[in-house]
Design a protein that fits this description.
The complex is a heterodimer of chains A (about 120) and B (about 290). Chain A has about 120 residues and is α+β, with helices and mostly antiparallel strands. Chain A is built from four helices and four strands. Chain A has helices at about 5, 40-45, 50-60, 75-90, and strands spanning about 25-30, 90-100, 105-110, 110-115. Helices cover about 35% and strands about 15% of the residues of chain B. Classes of the chains: A alpha+beta (about 120), B alpha/beta (about 290). Bound molecules: S-adenosylmethionine (SAM).
């Protein structure tokens, strides 16, 4: 799972009012190279919760993203490269996502988060 | 004849390791799913600007449908309830991210962030109650409600479905409309029992344009030529639902004099030698004849 997906996922447990962002527990991170596409990054930028992306990437061991961001930064190639790397090339391979409200853990195995809810959570 | 997989077992049980492998190694299935996915992408009607979008593949299985999204240059997140299917997707090194989840529990995604969604041959599963705690209506409501929320305004969801009957089709469409979607069902090749495929084409918010037309709607080339193979495969089980209905209809129609007269007229128009119509035409024969 990439941070792109992490930035979209939120805890869906019944009664939880703010399930975003899920905390990340890291056991293993892998990096995979992805073709750089500026257009995609520009299209995504407005939808990304920046603070969550910065925090998640730090948890994953990547510290290059600036604390704050604004649209004008999209003119910088350096910024785009970092954004690209954090968003698309870092994979949480093993670990867990944790609901910020309830602490419920969603295990991540082989890069796949298990978001299945128990019956009493639906 | 195999019955509908939906009636055999819950999806996470039906799509076990064996079935997941069988499913993904059949060139026939690969071909059909690719065609359905291509058509779904076409119906998504994304802006023609070469910008990759963030799409959702609901019931992504082993990634056959997602692969079409990658080929079209998009990023995608695939959701499926079957670990076995997702394992095959991993083996096949699909480019999208995979999530193990149940669409009937609602999609846990932030509002307004997804550019479009497809689902190929999956949503009809929601119509079955696989556990005592399952109530199809509640699950359909959760699914469509959450789908509507996570899509950006004006974004589309194209869901190719195999409803078991009219009631199921209306149930599914009804919940889509109640969630706030506009749109409807596009039927490709409606006159062909084998090639007939239906897609719910849903738009988040007011419709951006008129509903697209189905292929072969006006009877153009639906000769079933691409379905020469057997149709009794469980994964693409449309035959079981259509054959009995077709038979009944034919039996009824074939008996009448009107039908015979019409057929004879057709043959004449084609230039065949056809006996003249008389009072004996299509008359019932006595048993001893
Ligand atoms: C016929 S397969 C299609 C897979 C893929 N879309 C393709 O085109 O090859 C249907 C898939 O829907 C999945 N499915 C069924 N019910 C589901 C649910 N409630 N939530 C998520 N996935 C589900 C099944 O596990 C299966 O992988």
């Amino acid at each position: 799972m990439r941070l792109l997906t992490h930035n979209m996922l939120s805890s869906n447990i019944k009664g939880v009012t703010n399930g975003f962002p899920l905390l990340i527990e890291v056991e293993k991170v892998v990096e995979k190279q992805v073709d750089f596409n500026e257009d995609f990054l520009r299209n995504m930028f407005a939808k990304i919760e920046w603070k969550a992306l910065v925090k998640a990437s730090r948890t994953m061991g990547y510290t290059e993203l600036p604390e704050n961001s604004e649209a004008s930064m999209l003119n910088s190639d350096e910024f785009l490269r970092k954004f690209h790397h954090a968003l698309l090339e870092l994979h949480l391979e093993e670990g867990a996502l944790v609901c910020p409200e309830t602490g419920r853990k969603f295990p991540v195995n082989k890069g796949i988060p298990n978001m299945l809810l128990h019956e009493d959570e639906v | 004849m195999t019955s509908r997989p939906e009636l055999q077992a819950p999806p996470e049980i039906f799509y076990n390791d064996d079935e997941a492998r069988k499913y993904t190694s059949s060139s026939r299935i690969i071909d059909i799913q690719a065609k359905l996915s291509e058509r779904a992408v076409e119906l998504l009607a994304l802006p023609n600007d070469d910008v990759p979008r963030l799409l959702l593949d609901i019931g992504c299985g082993s990634g056959l449908s997602g692969e079409t999204l990658s080929e079209n240059g998009h990023q995608w997140i695939g959701l499926d309830i079957s670990q076995s299917m997702l394992d095959v997707a991993l083996e096949r090194e699909v480019e999208g991210d995979l999530v193990l989840g149940d669409m009937g529990q609602g999609l846990g995604l932030r509002p307004g962030v997804i550019d479009g969604a497809i689902s190929i041959s999956a949503v009809q599963w929601l119509c079955n109650a696989d556990k005592s705690s399952h109530e199809p209506r509640i699950r359909l409501k959760a699914f469509f409600g959450s789908l509507y929320r996570c899509l950006g305004r004006g974004a589309r969801a194209v869901l190719q479905v195999y409803p078991e009957n009219l009631a199921q089709r209306e149930l599914i469409l009804g919940f889509a409309m109640r969630a706030g979607f506009s749109g409807g069902i596009v039927v490709d090749f409606p006159h062909s029992t084998k090639r007939r495929k239906e897609y719910l084409v849903l738009t988040c918010g007011p419709p951006s344009s008129a509903a697209p037309r189905g292929k072969g709607e006006d009877g153009e080339s639906c000769s079933d030529e691409d379905s020469s193979g057997d149709e009794d495969n469980q994964s693409v089980c449309i035959s079981d639902r259509h054959r009995p209905r077709k038979k009944q209809r034919l039996n009824k129609k074939m008996k009448g004099r009107e039908w015979v007269l019409k057929k004879k007229e057709q043959m004449r128009r084609k230039g065949n030698a056809v006996p003249a119509d008389t009072k004996y035409t299509a008359r019932k024969r006595k048993a001893r004849f």
